[in-house]
Amino acid sequence: MAELNASQMSDADARRSLDEELGRFNCRVHQPSDPPLFTRDPQSPMMPLHWRWSDLAPLLERIGGDLKLEAKGNRRTLRLTNPGLPYGTTPTFWGSIQVILPGEVATTHRHVASALRFIMKGNGAFTTVDGEEYAMNEGDLVITPAMTWHDHVHRGDEPMIWLDVLDISLVRAMHATFFEGYSSDLQAVSEYPHRSYQQFGSGIMRPVRPKVHNPVNPLLAYPADRALAALSSAAELPADPYCDTQLEYQNPATGQSALPTISTRLQRLRPNSRCLPQRHTGSVLNYVIGGSGITVVNGQRFQWGPGDFIAIPPWSWYEHALTSQEPATLFQVNDIPALRALGLYREEFAASE
What we know:
The structure is a single chain. This protein has six helices and 22 strands. By secondary structure, it is α+β, with helices and mostly antiparallel strands. The strands form five sheets. The chain has a six-stranded antiparallel β-sheet with strand order 1-19-16-21-14-13. Strands 2-3-10-5-8-12 form a six-stranded antiparallel β-sheet. Strand 6 and strand 7 form a beta hairpin.
């Protein structure tokens, strides 16, 4: 049963008088000044937020020129912070934009937080995850499952920018943070550096007796060309009224999300489309790969274009609309898998018109 508000407490004075005495024994009772433990609907302090590429680009250029990429896990990242939260972009994950310059090395480490990289701009970097090495080119998604050794090397000749997402906010809330540095800057590359992709990368076939190094997800890299081809093919079908066309990157061994706590998706919005409102208990971060449109979150209107980010709090009504004659493509990160695993996921859809 929900706690009563102060105005409904007939024993409010008695509760106040008990507070100091109970505190000596590290105990307490609900006080009139306490916020309610239960609310009719989820109440999140996270704010809907819009980061514009026109604002981010000069900031990234600044940190690329002024900050160093150093060993022991220090990266050069621009964190997308939400002013409604003590830290993080959403209640469960943190989105950051990383800048890496030609010739630089992001040294090897591992941590219990699951991570992903979506390449926003540039080509020529490589990531090694537990001995498997994969290219990181524009539009690619690469993942770093929990406690896998990983490092990045930029072998190209122009700066690269990618989105880092880690479920560090969730891990910190669970008091389960682990971090470990490696014995050298770079780990050794395996004799079979593309093993997981060679086994699972087709998307339609999988090995009968696979040799996998990581049970969370044997597939570490999702190239842009295959993902976009799948999205374009799906966009030839009738539109879903709430998201138009949306596909999820999946774990090929289980059919579930690529990471156990984070869902990654590509969305295609057709010219002049308008999605119906929806809401759910997961939080969302959208990155605009291309196109322009409008997102309305609880009545707040955000007009976005290429390179922009939109953060959507849990249990917020939101909808997308396009007014242009060109399609838009979004990359989405959400924490729905974590909510589902804990039995906390709820969703609601506005009635079709």
